[in-house]
Write a structure and sequence with these properties.
The structure is a single chain. By secondary structure, the chain is an all-beta fold. It has no helices and eleven strands. The strands form two sheets. Strands 2, 4, 5, 6, 9, 10 and 11 form a seven-stranded mixed beta sheet that branches. A four-stranded antiparallel beta sheet has the order 1-3-8-7, with no helix packed on it. It starts with a strand and ends with a strand.
Length: about 120
C-alpha cells in the first residue's frame, strides 16, 4: 500500500520553471516505479514522465522531453518533477502514480496508486 501526496503546483509565467513533488508513504515505496501524468479540463489524462524504482532510467513524453526532469530520492520517499521552459499547454492537474513494477512505464493502467493531483497553471 502506497499513499501519494503531490505539492508544489501553482501559477507560473510562460518560459518559467516550477517543481512539483510527490511525497509517498509505505514501506515498499522504493521498489515502485513512479510516473507523472497530467489532465487538462475536458481532456484525457496523459503520460508525462516516469522513473524506475532505482531511479536509473527515466522516460518522457515527447511533448516534455528536454524540458522536464524526473528524479527520486528514496531515502526521503519523494519523487520530483522539475519543469522548465513551461508553456501554456502544460497547464493541467499533475498527478503522481506508483506502480507495482520496477520499470518505468507509460500507460495509466500500469499504475496502481494515485495522488490527488496538484494544479499547474502557465499563464501571463
Amino acid at each position: 500500500q502506497v499513499q501519494l501526496v503531490e505539492s508544489g503546483g501553482g501559477l507560473v509565467q510562460p518560459g518559467g520553471s516550477l517543481s512539483v513533488s510527490c511525497a509517498a508513504s509505505g514501506r515498499t515505496f522504493s521498489t515502485y516505479a513512479m510516473g507523472w501524468f497530467r489532465q487538462a479540463p475536458g481532456k484525457e489524462r496523459e503520460f508525462v514522465a516516469a522513473i524506475s524504482w532505482t531511479g536509473g532510467s527515466t522516460r518522457y513524453d515527447d511533448s516534455v522531453k528536454g524540458r522536464f526532469t524526473n528524479s527520486r530520492d528514496n531515502a526521503k520517499n519523494t519523487v520530483y518533477l522539475q519543469m522548465n521552459s513551461l508553456k501554456p499547454e502544460d497547464t493541467a492537474v499533475y498527478y503522481c502514480a506508483a506502480a507495482r513494477f520496477g520499470a518505468a512505464m507509460t500507460q495509466r493502467a500500469q499504475y496502481m496508486y494515485w495522488g490527488q493531483g496538484t494544479q499547474v497553471t502557465v499563464s501571463s
